[in-house]
User: What shape does this take?
Amino acid sequence: MSSALFDFRWTGRLATCIGAFLLIVTTSSHCFSQTSDESSPLSQQRVVEGLHIQMQIQPLDGSTVLNQGTDARVTFTIRDANSMEPLTGLHPLGWIHGRKGQFPPNETMLDDMVSRFLGGILSVTADHDLNRYYLLVLNDDRSISIIDPLVAFSITKLRNLIGLPGDPVDWALSELHQRLLVTIPDQGKLVIIDLTQAKIEREIEFGDNTDPVKVLIQNDQSAAWISLDGTDELVRIDLETLDVGPRVSLGKGRHVTAIDTDSRWLVATNTEDGTVTIIDVQDEELPSNLLAVGETPIAITYAPLAARFLVACANEDRLRLIDPARSQLTRSLEIPRGVIDVSVEPGGRFAFLASPSVGEVAILDTSSKELIGTITTAKAPDRVVCTASFAYIHDTERANVILIDLNRLARGELVVTELGIGRQSMADVAAGRQITSLLAPAPEGNSMFVGNSADKLIYYYVEGMMAAMGNFQTYKRIPRGVLVLDRSLRETGPGEYSTFVRFHKPGKMDIPFLIDQPRALAHFEIDVIRDETIPLVATVVPVSVEFLPPEELIRAGQTVPLQISITDSQTKEPVDGLEDVQVMLFPLNGAFQFRLLAERVGNGIYEVQGSFPEQLRFGLLVQVSSRGLSFKNSQLHQIGVHPAEAQK
Assistant: This one.
């Protein structure tokens, strides 16, 4: 399967983009005809092609103006212009981009802008693309990859690679604040990553021997809770200010946490004591109660239909249901022994209990609080992750994934499908401290990303197919966890399509907004007020880069010094003293890549040690951020690799 074909056909979202692109080309002269009603700078209305479209931007800090660095909710409400009835089930597309000139774009300029954004080219992107999502991959080499699955015609889909200061164990995503929280137990740290900039924003140190492991984000996105297994404590992090709050004492052992739908009650397990700690997180005093539940409680979740926490003990064959308001056990059910994961599907009715030691997954109907079935076809099921229609069972000893049809299950039918996704099982690689999930639902709602640590690939599966539709490279890294960062517009109410944006650049912004069916193109604009406390980016003089080919032939299996010459593009003089010269080296088939920090040689010469493991044609890109040169706009230098010399 070619990469281009895969990029443009594998999801319904991309099909929408293609249809939208054809719409721009064929009908733009009709779509752009619009009338406007400016009620306020952050709430604007347009009437176009019989549609009433309202754009609202709500800064999360409560401000009535949009300041640089502000997080804001962006909402488009689409109604019929005559009846004002909301239009649901649409798939609109939108972009926010800094204006290049003094005047707003005319019809032709707007058409051209949208056509370029729809092209999916990495070097032609909007400042804020409201249609994209990204794969986040937790790697075993102390890094996190950000992969753009929608980019087309690109040498690599790897958008960013973020290094970590230690071995990561758990992570959680705050989509509201666009932050990723990663625990680093061996360093006693929590790393907070700003996903709008793809860089570490802050490192919070808890101290020696604190062993921060699990991270839980409240459903209201106001706070995160970090379990300190070394000191048997739980600590609160304010997700708005990143302030570290008070610590709550727990029982002894490892601690797994869960929170209810309303972010009122938090329950933490205490594996050595055989107890759970129940905390009222809405009370400023954070009162807590201990409750005995059984031997080694290790798996916990909240079941909203039952209004109970479900707790399974690894060394028992019982599931306990807990009423948090009364701090009482309300029911105990027999389940397979050794359950280590309990999860509830999005509808809230069915819970799945995975036991790798006995190779079973039990199913609980939380509305009746009764077990209704057991799956025995997996060898070592360790996790269940659900879309709206299917439950996916991950098996650590097989490459296969088992699917349970949730719609049929609701009608009393247990229908199981087994899919071969990948070639090798996790049993073929050392798992390490594996507590993150390798399954992540795609935003389309009918597909799943499946990480395979042994294959070093992320597979993409669409429901209804008998095999994966394609895969994404991890660039020779072993994936330990997969998440999806969804920055696309989602229907959050009747006719309302929303997402969250951090406006990190000041100035006038153009906002083209496109609807495929019914066909319409509208234009909005906003002002982002500059924050005077943020220093202006200094004007830099661009540089020119020349690759200096080695004198000897490069052969497969060799590591050789590669040199580049950097000169001032205006004076043509060598540029010395640069500390941020990076080189990306990769085969042109995109199978993997190396990112290398170059060392100074002198007289504008910089050097890296390039590895060429295979006889392929390689590409070389250079990035010097301090001088405005990025991998995106770097000239591509090609390097031929010859066969390895025959051994004598």
